[in-house]
Amino acid sequence: MNSLKLMILCCAIGLPVAALADEGGDVYRQACAVCHAVGVAVAPGTPRLGVQSDWAGRLSGGKPEMLRAVLKGKGAMPPKGGDASLSDAQAGAALDYMLSRIIRSQPLASGDRRPE
Ligand code: HEC
Question: What are residue 112's phi and psi, to 5 degrees?
Answer without folding.
Answer: -85, -15
